[in-house]
Amino acid sequence: MSDPSAPAVLVERLPDHVVLVTLNRPQARNAVNGEVAAGLQAAIDDTEADDDVWAVILTGTGSEAFCAGADLKAVSAGQGAALATARNGFAGFVHAQRSKPWIAAINGPALAGGCELALACDLRIAVPAARFGLPEVKRGLVASAGGLYRLPRALPQAIALEMILTGEPISAERALQLGMVNALAESDQLLAAARALAARITVNAPVAVRASLGVARKALDHSDAELQVASARAQALVYGSEDFKEGPLAFIEKRAPRWTGR
Fold first, then answer.
1. Which domain holds residue 70?
2. Same domain flag for 45 and 174
3. Residues with Cβ within 8 Å of residue 27, at least 6 apart in sequence
4. What global pTM score does this model have?
5. What does pLDDT average to over the chain?
6. Catalytic residue among 116, 226, 242, 246, which?
7. Cβ proximity of 211 and 238 under 8 Å
């Protein structure tokens, strides 16, 4: 039995510059209500402002769902507007300006808005029992929190369109085969797998990681000329960092780099 007084979003600092953010409404299949939206927006603000945070993991409590999307009880109670924030959109997350990599550790089905949350993250690890889908058309709705354009980026277009137009989900195994998911892990190993992936990121220079991610996120939306300019700006930003000096020095001195993220 979950604690009804517990926060809807839990934030925990892990070792090695990683933060774990957990959707904590298992009694509602981690569906998004106003508390979740406010909590996720606050988590983004806090992790973005903290130079000591280099990667973030997003997961859900329990095994019933990563996130079931919008909390329809909240919507029917007239609280639908609270499910999005003016700055970051649905769940206080899907349209957020983020510079740091987020890894979705998908502990169960990710459907509707839950799928859109997973798609808004940069990398995804899922349990074999997870499913991904945008069933909105089955309910006379539109997946308006990013799913309609992020799903065709994450999957072959024909498969994405089939999912969007039929509303039918795909399994975690198929999502892995098609490249939407980075890896599968059993439920008792999910967070360990996500942390291992985060560690492979945080071993690198944080300034270079953020700058590289910023360009890579634009890859499907901009021309080569625009991306060349963005890459040059990213390189200039890295040139001005302490980490740029540390990398070559550590190589010369044959030791592990001591990154500062500055």
1. 9-202
2. yes
3. 2, 4
4. 0.94
5. 95
6. 116
7. yes
Same domain, 188 and 226: no
Order of strands, sheet of 9-14, starting from the edge strand that comes earlier in the sequence:
9-14, 18-23, 55-60, 102-106, 123-126, 183-184
226 an active-site residue?
Answer: no
Residue whose entry in the numeric block shows the structure tokens 């560690």: 199
Beta strands in the chain (DSSP E): 9-14, 18-23, 55-60, 84-85, 89-90, 102-106, 110-111, 123-126, 131-133, 170-171, 183-184
CB 75 within 8 A of CB 113: no
Average pLDDT over residues 232-245: 90
Handedness of CA 91, 94, 95, 98 (dihedral sign): positive
Contact 31, 77 (CB under 8 A): no
Indicate the burial class of 95 (C-beta count within 10 angstroms; 0-12, 13-18, 19 or more).
middle
Same domain, 142 and 91: yes
Question: Both 102 and 215 in a single domain?
Answer: no
pLDDT at 1: 46
Co-location of 38 and 98 in the same domain: yes
Over residues 61-91, the pLDDT tens digits come to 999 999 999 998 998 899 989 999 999 999 9
Phi, psi at 79, each rounded to 5°: -105, 20
Does residue 55 lie in a domain region? yes
> How would residue 113 be classed by pLDDT, with cut points 50, 70 and 90?
very high
Q: What pLDDT score does 62 carry?
A: 94
Q: Which of 12, 48, 64, 136 is catalytic?
A: 136
